[in-house]
Fold each of these.
Amino acid sequence: MSLYRSTYQHWKGKYQGIWYRRYAIAANGIQSAWSSKWTRNMVMAAWILSVVQAALLFGIGQLLVKDSVIYSLVEQLQPQLQVFANGLMSWIVAHPEISVRSVYSFLFYFFSGWMSTLSLIIIALIIPSLISRDLSSKAIIIYSSKAVSRFDYFLGKFFSVFGVLCIAWLFPVCSAWLLGGLLAPDWSFVWHSRMALFKSAAYIIFAASFLSIIAMGISAVSVKEKSATVIWVVLWILGNVLGRIGAVTESWIQHLSFNYNLEQLSLKLFQPKNELSLLQDNVPVVGNLLRGLPVDRFPMFQSPQFAGAMITCGIMITLAVIILNWKVRPE
Amino acid sequence: MNDPIIQGIKLSRWYGVVMGLNNIDFQIHPGITGLVGPNGAGKSTLIQIITGQLQPSSGSLKVFGETPWNQPSVLRRIGYCPERESLPEHLKPMDWLSGLGQISGIPRTAFPELGIRLLKRVKLGEAHWKKRLGQYSKGMRQRVKLAQALMHSPDLLILDEPMNGLDPMGRQDIADILKSLAHEGISIIISSHILAELESLCKNVMILNWGRVIASGAKNEIRSDLSQWAEELSVRCDDPQKLARILFDGDHVLGFDIQKEEQRLDFRIKNPSKFYQNWNQILQDSGLIVFEISSKSQSLNQIFNKVTT
């Protein structure tokens, strides 16, 4: 008699779809990242920066309120600074559409950049648990035997890093904008600052996606968890060193730094050079102040090497995908 | 017989110039099937193809009528318990099972009930549930691996060396679990080098060596096939010593043993094909009175040794 019978009790509930399973991989990754005290501290630091940013946005808004604390503070400044502050205030009142846009753009440019540094530190902390741990424990064998394809596994892992970066980068910046808008004297601030928000969101989404893929590639390089962190930090530092060397020798060397490439994207989106020109043209006091300064020597006011940055990012992403495809195999 | 659950047709898999599987045709039917073979025989390659982790280089393999590669609908029906250590050491068993359950499409709300049921089923003591997997003994890890393989209620369970590292009681526990699963209708493929365990568990075996299927089918069928060319015979006759001398002089035997009281000669044949061509003539010429000729009963281990050496 055959041992086979058809009385086996199957799982009676409804199986969830593929997006739920991808979500499960991502959610477990985020949960694993969150279990680290250091990661939580870094995320907290990002949110503190966001509060600082919101406070600054609130301060700018108060320049339009005659009886605000800012006014009383301005009155206590030195006469020269008072002239500058009054010039700025009258400019904001006269051209809110330009002033809010420019000031917000500068602020979002700086804060997005500072938070990117925190995000790079967060990646260094979470990179071992990304793929290295699955490879070292060989849990990848079991994952790949489940009803998810390798693509689904990668997608889940991608969203686990991307999710953490959103919590530590995108959401704080958006929250700062929202809070700034809520605390502003009128709703025109929300409208005039919309481009600064869109630029920040576009920059962070691209940068977080790019960094997530690179982090996955690096995490797949070694089965030793600590090695992944070391490789990430070394590449980060090495990239910055090469960036400095490239600035005074061959400019293409700068593109070997992922930080530099992201900075070029940021410059392309926020266009601080154009915003500065706008300020100089429309606010005489600012124009007079900056006229003698060699602002072009500051990297942030130079023309971005956008095409080179995008090509290098593309190459880096391709390399990461090749590494993932090569290293993340169950056999 | 039931329709095959797995069917391989001219299945091959190369690793560069190395042949993992070499143009094999086979069928695996419902029930418990043992996958036997020495290291490098192609067992793991076959298991990886069945579990959709590898693609065949040529030929085809169907599991439940579908190709498993990149096919979640097939993978959902398969539970896999790998031989290699594959547990994230920082997690507790319930967390791990919950995560894997969600990856399999089981909603989070099904836990912890489902996890408790599974851990009880694999007889993992409740006292160990709060420990991290890194603190588990080899035997406990095997049980958790089995639990995860059973989680999504598969139709086919594939176990790679499931008894490794288990003490005799643990082995018996796992054997009992597997038997009860088979009884419930789940099909099981077990790869093992401890053949005695397979012998007590499996109805069917598939023996692999050098990437080829050497023998496949019900254990007794293989045994019957092999007995046609048995290499060890037992002959009861009126003068076993005389028969031993004749066989020895004719250079037909590798060794023999005479049981005087039972008038029996047990001997191992040197060249079976040549021997069986002359066997009737030898007996006729000897003038002996033969009471009984039998091939020695073959255990799975002997079958395995025979077909793989």
Amino acid sequence: MKPLLHVENLSIRLPKGADREFAIRNVNYELMPGELLCVVGESGSGKSMTANAVMGLLPKVIEVDSGAVTFDGFDLTSLEERRARALRGNRISMIFQEPMTALNPLMRVEDQISEVFLIHTAMSATERHDRTLALLEDVGLPDPKKMLRAYPHQLSGGQRQRVMIAMALALEPAVLIADEPTTALDVTTQAQILKLIKELQHKHNTAVMFITHDFGVVAEIADRVVVMEKGEMVELGKRDEVLNHPQHPYTKKLIAAVPPLVSPQREVSVHQEAPILQVKNLCKTYTTGGSWFTKARIVKAADDVNFELHRGETLGLVGESGSGKSTVSRCVVRLLEADSGQILLAGNEIQSLNSKQLMPFRKRIQMVFQDPYASLNPRKTIGQIIADGPIAQGMPATDALAKAAELLELVELPKTALDRYPHEFSGGQRQRIGIARALAHDPEVLVADEAISALDVSVQAQILELIDVLKKRLNLAVLFVVHDLRVAAQVCDRVIVMEKGKIVEMGETSQVFEAPIHEYTKSLIASIPGAHWRSGVEDNQSIEIMEAQV
Amino acid sequence: MSVQTLLYIGGRLVKGAAVLLVIAIFNFFLIRMAPGDPAQVLAGEAGATDAIFLQQLREQFGLDQPLYYQLWIYVSNLMQFDMGITYRQQMPVFDLIMDRMPATLLLTGAAFLLSLLLGILAGVVAAAKHRKWADSAITVAALIFYATPLFWLAMMAALFFSVYLEWLPSFGMQTVGQDLTGWQKVTDIALHLILPASTLGLFFTAVYARMMRTSMIETSRLDFVKTAKAKGMKPSRVTTHHILRNALLPVVTLAGLQAGQLIGGAVLTETVFAWPGIGRLMFEALFQRDYNLLLGVFFVSSAMVVIFNLITDVIYCVVDPRIELSK
């Protein structure tokens, strides 16, 4: 069989002053008709570069240096713009990572889809309308007739991604490029979208280039896999070969960093002392809109939430977006005011305290935030960031700075970092700083709100390791808010599953994962991509690799 | 229009009326705080300054009453849509304002349309030629017009186009002493309009151009523009169908602010070009201490701001479907 798309010795140069000379270098792979090829790599690996080169979407400052991408006998990198446009959206189309922003907010769904017909075909208005309606039905959107008239903001993330898919598949392209199309979606939505892509691919015999960082997704849908590292292609092979017998050390490292879905055996600890944190009947309701005449939209983000957390324990709070898990975690540290209920920290009720009374308790419960890029003040040095808290609590500045230096050592960063600014650090390093900042108060409870979600998988593994080590050393109680069930299975002693503000299941991690009781938990676990695949690398081997990284 | 929208507009009108009442009371005190006395101005013009005549004038206009009583009379008249009689012309204030309104609306409306069209066009061109010479030229020109005082620009324009080149008339709205009719009259007024309208519009042209340029550049970096390109669209269509409309949103907000000033904002231009509009009326009333007339102009101007703010919000809801009119 002849390849549909042939990437030959492709090199793309980065502008001067970038961290490396080439975005991608000497990349070679073929996309066969009807196959699903996954391009895998971490952020900065150049995995999206080839796709953007194919679509003519490279930023102006980035140029193809050498090599070619052949499609239908033409080299796409040197094709005349007018002829390349005729292929785009027609024979080759693309869907993107962020369904929330990828659609024009001011245009109705129908107009955005039928635009593709308008550009590439001579269809009449009624034909365009009928075809658009059929497409919406094809991608499984509810009430397609109504959907035609909808604006993007009226749809959920999953629905928007379906609209994007409908748009991309409008003219039955030979090649579909999907750039992390499910990364921004919830796990159950992700499972549906993956299934949809797979179905449509079979139905229309489309070749799909699927860019992802998630090996679970690879295991779920790929036929063949390309692994990219820092712009170089390090491995290419059949899915099962690559997943189960990776050859290149980088591939091995990546796969080892994927947390296996089976929860490790833990001793069921019987807690003697009283719990450090108790949450009783916590309720929090958000009300939006509403006036004398219109009905308000009421969302119960926390609905009678009860749990306990002991020293030395990691409690996972899992659920999809909108489940209320972040609301609960923020109420617990009192960044949000709960409507009712009690929060007891070491037996002291802190929910009803005013901000002055709360002051001495603040330091005992600390938070690590989700986005390491946004949660550190860019105009302060690392030393100031870490020392600020203790100084506010009354510690002399010199002592606080000395303590900051110690903490940096604890989170495995050099002391020289004290006088530097956040932008000089990578995401993983920043999250270490965020942890050091939280630990500066010697807290008893650490709340980690999606603390690893923004990080690459190998960095994730390191941060998880660090939190675990610190927990043991400092006898911390950790409330771990996370949407990634693989991570939850690995690091949590117990998990709480939340749905629409309610706790639907709570128990020992292994029990919840192996024998879930509630329907929602079952559907969550069934949705994890690549659930049937367990990394083929032996456990002891993976530990070795992890240690090598740290 | 949905019931909800109508309710919203009704609510806003009620609130607007309350705001206007507060403004009217505030204006009343503001004017009384300024030094000067209308009776003395009038008496001075009549050439009589004896105390009895002054007293008569004050009695005639109710200026001898205590301040709170004057306020009460003013507000209660206003509630019945009566703005009083001007001291000098002895005409109802409302009629006088309505008499001058068309001239002002013609001037400010022309300036408004001109600045909106020209500003948006310049901004779009500058953004399309980002970092090329056309962009620099537009940006620099916009900065100059943005920074130059209006009255200076008006005088220079009159000097250059009327006195030096003798192309355009420099004052008034119509040629004096000719009773033109039909198309001749229209052309005559249009020629008189060119200078004042363009001087008045230049500032906002500059503001719109700069804002539109930034907005276009920012919007062109958004994700949905990439989606549009990936559909295989021509760059020109991407600009007109996807970037332009999104980029217009901030300009709509600003245009609403400018529209609110359509009535009261042309004092300088009208004075320099002797345009017989409300701005000049106000200017004269100020010197004559004609309290009733001044208050009337203030009131009509603030009513316009309130109404145009509401219109802007309604328009905003039409151009941006994400915004719902509620509360």
Amino acid sequence: MNVSHLGQASPSLRRLSELRGAAPQRSLDARALAALAANPGCRRRALLDAAGVDKTALADRLGRPAPFGQSPFAIRRGLQFESRLKRDGYAVLMEPLRRLLGVPEDEVASLAVPDLLPSLSPAMRTERTSAALAEAAADPSAWTLLDRPMLRLEVAGSPAYLEPDALVVHGGRCTVVEIKSFPVLDGSADPAKVGAAARQAAVYVLALQQAAARAAGREPSADPYAEQDLPGAPELTVLLVCPKDFSNRPVAMPVDVRRELSTTRRQLSRMTKVEQLLAALPEGMTFDLARDDSGAPTRPVEELTRAVEAVPAAYGPECISTCELGFHCRAQARCAGAVEQLGRGVRGELGSLRTVEAALAAAGRGAEPGVEPALLAELGLDEASERLAYAARLRAEALAAGGVR
Amino acid sequence: MSFSGELVPNPLDAAGALPPGEAADRAVAGILDAVVRPRPGAPRGVVVDSPPGAGKSTLVVRAARELVDAGERLMIVAQTNSQVDDLVDRLASKAPEMSIGRLHASDAKPAPEALRHANVTAKDKVADLLEQDVVISTAAKWQWVKAEQPWRQAIVDEAYQMRSDALLAVARLFERALFVGDPGQLDPFTVVGTDQWAGLSYDPSSSAVVTLLAHNPAIRPHRLPVSWRLPASAAPLISSAFYPYTPFRSGTGPGERTLRPGVRADGSAVDTAIDEAAESGWALLELPARHTVRTDAQAVAAVAQTVRRLLDRELTAVSEQGSAPLTAGRVAVGTAHRDQAAAVRAELARLGVPVDPALGEAVTVDTANRLQGREYDVTVVLHPLSGRPDATAFHLETGRLCVLASRHRHACIVVARAGIAELLDEHPSTEPVQLGVAVKFPDGWEANHAVLARLSEHRVRLS
Amino acid sequence: MSLLSTLARLEAVRGQRAEPLATVRHRHLSDRPMVLVPLAAAGEAGAPLAVLLGTDRDAPRLHLVPQPLNRTQRSEFLAAMAADVVPYLESFGEQVELLEGSEKDPVSGEKLPVVRELCADAPQLVVPNAAGVAHLALLGRSTRFRRTAEDPDPGEYPAPTQVPLLGRWLTHLTDRAQVPGSSMLLSMTGLLARHWATGQSNLEDQHLAARMAWHLSPSGLEPPATGAVAAEWVESARDAEGLLVHPPAGPSTDPKFDERVLAPAILRYDAAVAVRVRAEGSRDAAESERAAGLVERARAELARVLLAAALPTWHDVWHGLELLRELPPADHLPDRWEGDRWSFTMHRDRVAAGEPPQPRRDDAVTAARKLAQREREQAKLEIQEALDDPLAMAERRLAGEAFAGEVVDVVPEWSAGRSPKPRPLLVVRTGDRPHADPGREVYRAHAEPAQRAEIVSAESGEVVVRLLSGMGRRKDPEPGSVPEVGSRVVFTLFELAPRQSAPLPEPADTPWTHGGPPVVGEDSPAGADEWE
């Protein structure tokens, strides 16, 4: 979602740009789009992402920097892996692709790799990709690999440009290829990482579905599970390419992304709700860091903190590993005594009790000496408080019996 | 919920070109042929996917009869004692000429309904049952039976609920088997770590049918295409929400199943909801939004009150089979958790509604797990997401909602707090993905929204 | 998470200190555990970087791979680690108990007396966290198929015999660690989580130092503190160079550490090695010596930075052990530890018998057996913990699966029939709300012999049960077998003896539904040497 490619800026887009201030826009790539699924209830994150705010810089300025980083060893290993994949002329992809597409093994085919003009602008690259895709799809017997194609996805009315690792086109259909550096060991891989890769690939599949529908002059189907029967339409199973076992040799595994595709659809459809979030903001509010000429932020921290606080967050401990502002929001949640600091699941047991203080107060009534269980209900406590009081009584009794207190 | 691979094609029923009875008969005839008269070289297993109320039990009875008539001795494997007792009861009533052995554990006595038949013998040792035409027991009990026994043919009932390791333990007892089950219901589960086997075709914690099909690719599941239980108001929704790739339809048409209240509505929201359900087959009795613990006293009270009024208003269930009064035994309450069921039972008892089957006809109150395979005229469901501050994988599991929303012949009344749609919208979708494990469809979020969208057309607010 | 542990977490938030979740210690602690702090090289599955290990808190030993991409050095590392760990493991195989039993003769069917060996004790490895266990599993997987000089075809790079042996032990121990209640391989975060609640979430508790910060003020924090402030400090405080003041517990290292400390040190090491290679080529003895010194110094520098990265975690693990030793051991620990001793003894015997290493993947029968074992042990663990610890029983009471109270009345009654048996009614006053319908069978906790009862009625505040067994064979109950008025009793709705698991076929009898018998050797890539 790069503003430079927009024709006319709508009022919402103008407001989003104000929120970002002078900083360059962080483009919404497939990884960012997929990450929307991590905490769709968080208005703060939705707004910051929609405005393309650099959350890493924001977290730095707020005093609780994001703990994310990648080791140089991991980066190097990843690059080695990708180059090895290409050095083999992508031969490694052919066998699993044949299996996936049900093509007989003896069918010999050479792989065409058209030039996708990587130095052009995103819009032009998108044009080039769709032309190459159409051409490749026109000959069902051909095998074509589109290396670093460029796709366009409409997100809340504006285009985002996405760059999958590769697409393989055969039989008039294309298959998304996602290259990752985590290993597949004895046929299985870290499910959390495969899940993240599947969500990212689903964003590409969605973009390809939109493209195929556009090319055929049709509306994209509303059915979340429907397979498109259009030239160049994407397969709903993608190929995940990873290092095999302990080696640096690639292995390709099919991953069905239909479920992730339906998730992505609904997350993107919600992006339009950004307008509602904007409407609730105070006039003139911005997340601008007001950098000086040397690039150092000058915006007073308290002011920035207030601006961030103006948009409600839905903090959960998972945020620490998925969002740059995780530490900041945790500090806020702790400060407010919110029960979410202990985990999302905790809320299910505490019902309408939202703070540590309120929960402990309810528990305290059960631990009071002389409070018989029958009395708890008469105290007029709701079920959550009553259960907590009961739990507190059991806990006190057990600790005493165990000689701990 | 898990779905098997490619199905035996049946283009006619998909198009709905045949009347439902005929479509179902053809499917059943095909299955019986495959089971009783297998072609030479045919696979050793026959798998039948049966959506809710599609005549699975009838099929099992017919297959048992034909196999016994053909001179086979038959073993039947079901998953729980109550399923076994149900099956014994049904088989004994439908086939009085057949001798039936009920094999049970020494510390678990069979239910009286199973024992009331002259042709049923119950023993805790299989050696005492070898002369019976059919011997029925749970998978857990069959696992202890030694191998030198006379069965060639088995029927495995509720096969999708059976775990792969249970099948591994009993498969040595038979040569051929008919596996029947509903792929849309709850998957088997375990409380210990099984990640290391995820993706293996024989993952011991997966469904028996999944393993069977992975190792026997020649088996193509048959499918029963018509639900005789679900009314025309429910079958299309349940089919599209929970069986997107294997649609089925209702055996009855619109208006063929009705509920007629004998006592007029008292103007309360509960009565309005009952009228709505009587009219349309669905009602959503909605309480104001509030975050609560599982045993939300107001929601529990609303469920109990609904049941009380259902019985007080002397409804008559009119169907293609005639009309009958809606009595306690024909009503069930479904919940997600056991403590919710206990709370509803206590509240019903307080309202004087019979809930103890030992004392006579009673309303069934149970969790989705225990309601699997059961059928009632009217169900009252406490929505698994009602009042929750967050949705968990447990609450989103499609099988749970599918079971709860597909037990009824006439109507289903769902009790829930407002706010479920928002809760679903805010639910993080970051499910892990195991390589090599077939993705489960449909997605819990999509299925929940589909059901909710339908229910919201029949909303009655309770303030 | 249960409501009781949530409550403990809430209390921990209030006090900013860890709160007890157990009144006794539920895991066996060895007198001689070996602590391992493994570090992994980033970007590659299970690639070792270093390990700090030992049985003496004051004398940890560091093994490291100076250049993580160098396969020879990696093999040397594994050989050194194996030479350290395998003797520790094997030392427990020497002292045995002899147990007499009987076995059925497969031919005659007669029962024949046999004497079996059971190792008197078993080893215990303690790592910082669950990721440490996973790393050991990867090391096990990558080394157990290694060929040695003793193999018929030793291959190009034969490993010392102990390397595949280490792989087999690590595989066995990491597999055993999946069995609930087992204690041969433990993670400190797991141990602490069972016994204390912190005022943060489970996710944050995976960070060992952050978790420890709820028990003890982290070293270096001024002013000293425990709780959220201290936890955040160890999670995120960085020095002037941008390095974490308290390095993470591994196996992954901090990316900043990799970038600013480790990568330059490895580079210097590589450069020194290059100098040495050149010097050796020049055949100049003095130059060679100087170059060897350079390599030695570069290696020492690497050892210094890696020790600094692992040592704080080493101390955290020992601190944790200290905390745990303060808890009295639970009554059933010897029973469960015996299971570990059997597991150890059986693996020892398999190795001695020359059996091949564990296959890459379990076959259908093995997987089913392991699952059955885990479920059985889980059930046993839940029962034993509830009996050993009033706090664990409180969880069950809160869940409606047990009730405790005072006997306020005993009504002597007898069964009908020719020889009446005692069937007394107990009226129990209780504040608990068991999910107990009349007729439901319940079990009396701590009864010796076991005692069953059935619910007669369950009203708010009062449950009436009828005792059904455990009162002797006579008309009148054995003295002491019926609780007296005024005594406290606990009844559970769950059985107090776990059920046996049903028998499974032998792998060679795997049925058609599960693909038939497994093909021998299919999942054992003998001699595989897969690192590149």
Amino acid sequence: MENLQDKPTAKEDSLTKSLAVPMQRRMFMRYAGATAAVTTLLFATSCDDDDDSPTDPMAVDLGSGDTGILNYAYALEQLEAAFYAEVVAKSLSMFSQAEQQIMQDIKGHEGIHRDFLKAALGTSAIPNLEVNFSAINFNDKNSILTTARTFEDLGVAAYNGAGKLLENAGFLTLAGKIVSVEARHAAVIRDLISNGTFSDSANEKGLDPAMAPADVLAAAAPFIKTKITANNLPK
Amino acid sequence: MNIFRIIEDIEKVDPEVYNKLDSRRNAFKYMSSVGKKAALAAIPLALGSVFQKAYGQSNSTILEVLNFALKLEYLERNFYTQGLAANGLIPAGAARTAIQKIQVHEAEHVKLLIATIQSLNGTPISEPTFNFGKNFADWNTNYQTFLTLAQAFEDTGVRAYKGQAGNLISNDAVLTAALQIHSVEARHAAHIRRMRNNAGWIVGAGANSNVPAGAQPVYAGEDNVAQGGINDVKTVGAGYSAEIATGAFDEPLTKEQVAQIVSLFE
């Protein structure tokens, strides 16, 4: 396992693979694998499982269990990373020097979230999603910032809602490491739109939203061309 | 053996069994966490552990976390309340509005935590006496010192909640509420950081956070690049800088680390 990781890699995508192999074994066997085996046995003997929903051959299914939740996060990070990559490629000159740095930083953060989750999921990762940004005007600063706010607030609500669906405490902490950075992004973007609105997402109890995957995916659907099914995610 | 039959039987005697397990799903959670170590043959043992958690130890762990969070929220509420009351400390306008908004959130968090602790039949700790001037004498006369401490408290809060998430995994409602507070603290942190002309996110172990040496424990370990079994997260995809790699992940603090930070103000 360690040798595999150290082996020099010729192609770029084999780098991902070499990372994915130890990840696969280490994370999913140690954390999820053994757990899944026991749970499966319990289900098989005693539970009326209603998970088998009809499958659309064209759709990308996120999967089940913790892997499904991580794929769900990976899908959202793909969306955000693609968006900021486009902003930096097309729209940077519209922003002040300080704002450009913010956009570059967020592009980097979303990019590494995406690539990290892909590596962590290894062969369980869903494929690359095709995005649809036709509703966004990349020549209009306001359109960019309001879309950014939508994505960041949605990301925060998604991670907040997904925490309880994770079985493994290690994955929960990982999600926690990412969600607070999404919240920082959301606050900064909100302040760029209107200074002082950084936490106006919160309700009167001072709590940010927590959304279920189905609601998050419905909100994200207009921006994702690839059909995603999430029927097997934990509820 | 059918675990659900057993639980259903218990339900006849104790109708609240599901509340104590939180949910059917959590029964799995408990079972499977034990299942990691135990063979299937050991399920009766695992079952015992399910009920031990439901009827014993798990509630006390959760209450401990909630009281730990309550102490931090008391600290924040107290700090902002005193700061807002200090004559001429916080400039009128955007700055004051922001601090007021944050103070209201912290006060709400205090209320919510107290109510949650009581609903779990626990006893909320009473508000400790804080001494913000202990190591920062001009905290309520020098606006920059005040903002520095505000940043330190918010970033500590984010890291403290994150460190306890795993201890709340058995209670969905409490975990979700904690996460909903956690992200609000991160929003506060980002805003305060920018009020001080810092980036909204933490790069390295305090490299971009502009805090005095005494406050460095707040950022200890934020330079970590090992994530989820990947030894160096800078190497994923086409590769990333250390600034991006450390900025993209906030790191947890342990209870002990948080206690050490809080002790600077007690």
